[in-house]
Design brief:
It contains 8 helices and 10 strands. It has a 7-stranded parallel beta sheet. It has helices spanning about 10-30, 45-55, 55-60, 85-90, 110-125, 155-160, 180-185, 200-210, and strands spanning about 1-5, 35-40, 65-70, 70-75, 105, 135-140, 165-170, 175-180, 190-195, 225-230. It is globular, with a radius of gyration of 17 Å. With about 240 residues, it is α/β, with parallel strands linked by helices. Helix 1 (about 10-30) packs across helix 2 (about 45-55). Bound molecules: 6-phosphogluconic acid. 6-phosphogluconic acid binds near residues 42 and 72.
């Protein structure tokens, strides 16, 4: 099932994303001790992180019952400005009362295959699963080329493996990344895309128009739902 919600701007989009987190939290924690959320890197989520750390939201979230994961990581030290964990820690995790054991970062400072393998072990240990985990909620972004997480167009043989996470050298960025695989993302209960800005309008139109040559167009949780949180600029080429 797919929903599209268009906001006036990134601030309202981020508030809608926070509402999805709170709704999912209430639903999951009504029957389970904890929930699992995977977040993306890039710039769009930073507004959500700042919002969740604010006085208006910080007290509403049961941080001690939420485990946070990443959909991908750049293979750099956490101090590097490119580090997804580093940025999320600065904007959110350093400002909220969350137990350290609830934060499951991808160790981008290690050799890529080692970092990916350790992350898979951590995920399997948390979920107690031999196969793919079922994340309760995954926040995704989307690049102008239709990539999401670090699933870039033209490499589906790499990220379509039956693994939880894989290392991946992104030719055009000349850099290593570690990413959840497409099967791992599509095994989630709920996925929410956060996409903002006029530069994304064209790719939003292609993906929501059904272009399955793009990784973001292949995100479709079998047993779950996908919500597209767009601002007006990113939604300019679609009709709802
Ligand atoms: C990353 C993200 C990536 C991101 C998109 C959109 O590590 O960069 O996981 O998939 O979501 O590139 O990035 P922006 O939000 O900066 O546009």
């Amino acid at each position: 099932m797919q929903h599209i919600l268009v906001s006036s701007n990134l601030e309202e989009l981020s508030r809608n994303a926070a509402a999805i987190l709170l709704d999912s939290m209430r639903e999951v924690l009504a029957s389970r001790d904890c929930m699992s959320v995977a977040v993306s890197g890039g710039s769009t989520p930073t507004h959500l992180f700042a919002l969740l750390a604010s006085d208006a939201y910080r007290g509403q979230v049961k941080w001690e019952r939420i485990h946070f994961f990443w959909v991908d990581e750049r293979c750099v030290p956490v101090e590097d400005k490119e580090s997804n964990f580093g940025n999320a820690h600065r904007m959110l995790f350093s400002r909220i009362p969350i137990p350290p054991e609830n934060i499951h970062r991808i160790r981008g400072e290690l050799a890529p295959e080692e970092g990916a393998g350790l992350y898979e072990e951590d995920v399997r240990r948390h979920f107690g699963c031999a196969g793919l985990p079922v994340f309760d909620l995954i926040f995704l972004g989307m690049g102008e080329d239709g990539h999401t997480a670090s699933l870039f167009p033209g490499y589906d043989e790499i990220w379509n493996q039956d693994r939880i996470a894989v290392p991946f050298f992104v030719e055009r960025l000349k850099s290593w990344r570690i990413t959840l695989t497409l099967p791992a993302i599509n095994n989630a209960s709920r996925v929410a895309f956060l996409v903002s800005g006029a530069s994304k309008a064209g790719i939003v139109g292609r993906v929501l128009g059904g272009d399955k040559t793009l990784p973001a167009g292949l995100i479709s949780p079998a047993g779950g739902e996908t919500t597209w949180l767009l601002d007006r600029e990113a939604a300019a080429t679609i009709t709802i």
